[in-house]
Amino acid sequence: MAPMDLLIPRNLVLRVGLGVLAALALACGCMKPAEPLPPAAEAAPAAPKPPDRWAPIILPTADAGPWPAQAAPAPPPAPVAATAWVDEKTHAVHLPARFTHARGVVEWLLSARTRHFNTSSLVTDVPARDLAAALAKAGLAPGKRPRPVDEDRVQPPAGAALEIEVVTKDRQGRETRFPAGRLLSRESDGPPLGEGTWVYVGAETIEEGDAMICVTALSGSLITANLRDLSAMIYWVAKSADPGPRYAATCYASNVPLPGDAGDCELVIRPAGP
Asked: How far apart are CA 36 and CA 171, in angstroms?
């Protein structure tokens, strides 16, 4: 068979092409334009998420915001310094004190709060210089200090004789007064001191170069019955017919009961009467 016998007849191709065109034309005439799509429906709101049963519950509160600025707290009031004052009519010196309730050996009637607390009947915050200045304002001049003679004996001090009184008040404001010597004894838990007097010698001072050092302020020894103490301001001197040296006896807390609310008190120091 010759190659040309394999070729498709031209009239057949033409007939097929015309048939396709006719079919397309018929189809175009029958087709309608596409209608526009309907508008998309709005999405439905999402269902609320169920709460987490394990989440902590935090509710909004009115004070959840920042804290308002606050004024700085006022500083505490300055402590009132303890002072001694003088009654110019009676020439009596008044100073605040406090009972220590010490027992056993008690050789000081009054000492600074930071000294001899366990061997003193009373303590005070009044500085030694202030007490000395108040006694000078009351008209008292310093006397002579005790002088050791040997190991056990002392020459007693000499100076202005004083009366010292303890003044207390209970919770109802009732006042109690008694001589300060009642707090001390020559026996352990024994009766109060016998006859005698308090003697003022003044504060002990020494010169150190250009400075004047108050030894009494350093020792804290203000009023004592211990004649071996050479820095106290006031001494208890027992009555005796012999003005010479005497044995420096030990003092103790007496057996006199203290007032019921024995805490704060006042000491009143005045010149002894005739």
From this structure: 104
Task: Compute how many other C-beta atoms are within 10 angstroms of the C-beta atom of residue 203.
Answer: 21
pLDDT tens per residue, range 3-21:
444 445 555 545 555 555 5
- Cβ atoms of 116 and 229 within 8 Å: the answer is no
Confidence of residue 259 (pLDDT cuts 50, 70, 90): confident
Q: Which amino acid is at 54?
A: W
Assess contact for 194 and 184: CB atoms under 8 A: no
Name beta bridge partners: 185: 252
Enumerate residues 6+ apart whose C-beta is below 8 A from 264.
Answer: 96, 97, 98
Average pLDDT, the chain: 80
Measured CA to CA, the distance from residue 266 to residue 98 in angstroms comes to: 8
pLDDT tens per residue, range 236-246: 998 886 777 87
Amino acid at 65: G
Q: Which residues contact 11 (CB under 8 A, 6 or more apart)?
A: none
- Residue 202's nearest CA partner among 221, 175, 179 is 221
